[in-house]
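seq as requested:
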Amino acid sequence: MTSPAEPLLPGTRRALLHRIATAQAQGRSPSVVAAVQRQGRMVWDGSRSCVDGHAPDTDTQFRIGSLTKTFTAVLVLRLRDEGLLDLADPLEKHLPGTGVGDVTIHQLLGHSAGLAAESPAPWWERTPGSLRPELADVLGDQTRMHLPGRRHHYSNPGYTLLGALIEAVRGASWAEVLRTEILEPLSMLRTTPQEQAPHAGGWAVHPWADVMLPEPAEDLGLMAPAGQLWSTTADLLRFAAFLAEGDDRVLAAASVAEMREPSAPPESGDWDGHYGLGLQVIRRNGRTLVGHTGSLPGFLAALWISVEDDVAAVMFANITSGLLVGEVAAELVDIVAEAEPRIPEPWRPLPEVDQDLLALTGPWYWGTRANVLRLTPDRGLELQPLNGRGRGARFTARPDGSWIGLDGYYAGETLRLVRNEDGSVSHLDLGSFVFTREPYDPAAAVPGGVDPDGWRGLGS
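struct tokens:
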């Protein structure tokens, strides 16, 4: 069985190095650094540089740009889990006076609030945040681009509002809350709002000549929750492990899983790309990746996680544009997942079984459609069409004896066991649909009743 500490095969390691070396050469980046994690442990890291002997390593800071948004989203979910706010709350309830207080916290997290993509001129990423000392300076006059909730429209000012929300509810600065509630618990001590040596310098490379220009590294002020952070590949892999499994010191696994679910319709034509709550969700090569990309003048960053494969990859480059770090980081995940696929855990029987639940398993019919009900290892139920196509879902128990759908068509719907007078189960009621042990069972309460003459052939 694959051990978390088991190194990658030499061929896999060479393929990873070849990919980032090709990216650095073709993308003409002064340097790149990348790392891969499997089963919660870093199993590879590599780098390339235009200066011999000065390649970055896993402790070298780069700016991570919009990857900062994922940290901000985690802080908001913490407030929700503590009962201090609800994601359906209008912003005005907790942060009055913004002028856009009718948008919800959920819409801000998923970029569906309809706000502008950028702050008013001058270009906020290349000018000091002191030029925008108030929220009104960040939002400007034209705040609404679309009706809230109708479409995904990426908004940097939206995450400035979320940062201000965190400060208003916590009574402390965004940076201080971030440090105490995420960075310190996860031992991400090399992730900071301001650069700390050793760190890379940011560069622009001329599009038509092999010459470089240094980029300024501005303090973004109020825009910090949208893109301020510096980090290392080692630190971001720690964050990747948290985003895959959760950590009760920061955010429970269920809330992290909620962040990974699409929160708004994708842009037209981009059906393989969604946005969750502070996380990008993409589908490529049959694999779902969650994470985020980031850019600021002089820097590019990407973090992708395949939860199913238990593989994560981080890549940084100190260049303004020209290198598709998001694509390369995704390919690093692909290389490991395809060359050395995850070895599944051994099948094991349940430690104990509820006989009443066991009696529910097997075929159930919605009309004439055959479905199968199974027990799941987490003591839940799973209902799926027998032919594998159609409506299905997993369910978890409620204290009142009913079950709630977790995913699929029946997500959020209630499954109830309807019993006869003697206590035996007559049928299942799932969101008003009746599931019976036999197709149109005349002994069950089938809506519309069952013809008393029963099933018949052509001759009858």
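Residues 152 and 264 are 6 Å apart (CA to CA).
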